[in-house]
Amino acid sequence: MATTVRDLARLERAEFADMLDRLTPQQWGMPSLCAGWTVRDVVAHTIAYLTQSRTSLLANMTRSRWDVNRLNAAALRSYAETAPAQLVGLMRRHADPSGAGALYGGRVALIECLIHQQDIRRPLGMPRMIPEERLRVSLSYARISPVIGGSRRTRGVRLVATDICWSTGRGPEVHGSAEALLLAMTGRAPAVADELDGDGIALLR
């Protein structure tokens, strides 16, 4: 049984790898929720980010002139020749949060894998029931992380989960499942627009 955030992150990554093992070659090439990225691109991005040491990440960000798009493009190029089976193997070997993924007690690794797994599952029609404990940790972290920007995207609204006892913020309310709220907080509001309701929807950024 998971007892720490690192445990939750480890389980999330293992389940991510299990899901990828079931994909067909055609599914690896299909679009994800990340604009312009295929399923394979999302997987390569996740691995590239979470296997970097903090020093390497800082160096790569400097080389990319602190431009996230350049940083991501460089990471994808570095895995351009890596076969899907090898990508899955890397994900399994690096299941334990380390480097950048270990930041904030493993919360970076947890939310990175949880969100990107949904970026793949939703377009492929592969829904799942995300464990409540992982959702709670991810929701709380998304709200305060300056990189994720959940606070900026939901400023002036109150988020209320309809499937777990969780809410945050002040202002007109936005109701939805914990998963839908998390995706909205991480910049995917258009993808879950039909799953949200409330007077605060128009204020989501």
TrEMBL record:
InterPro entries referenced in this protein's UniProt entry, alphabetically? DinB/YfiT-like (IPR034660), Maleyloyr_isom (IPR017517), MDMPI_metal-binding (IPR024344)
Q: Tell me the Gene3D superfamilies matching this sequence.
A: dinb family like domain
State the UniProt keywords alphabetically: Isomerase, Pyruvate
Residue ranges of every copy of the Mycothiol-dependent maleylpyruvate isomerase metal-binding domain listed in the record = 10-95
What's the superkingdom here? Answer: Bacteria
Q: Name one GO molecular function term.
A: metal ion binding
Q: Which NCBIfam families match?
A: maleylpyruvate isomerase family mycothiol-dependent enzyme
What is the protein name stated in its UniProt record?
Maleylpyruvate isomerase family mycothiol-dependent enzyme
Question: Which species does this protein come from?
Answer: Nocardia terpenica
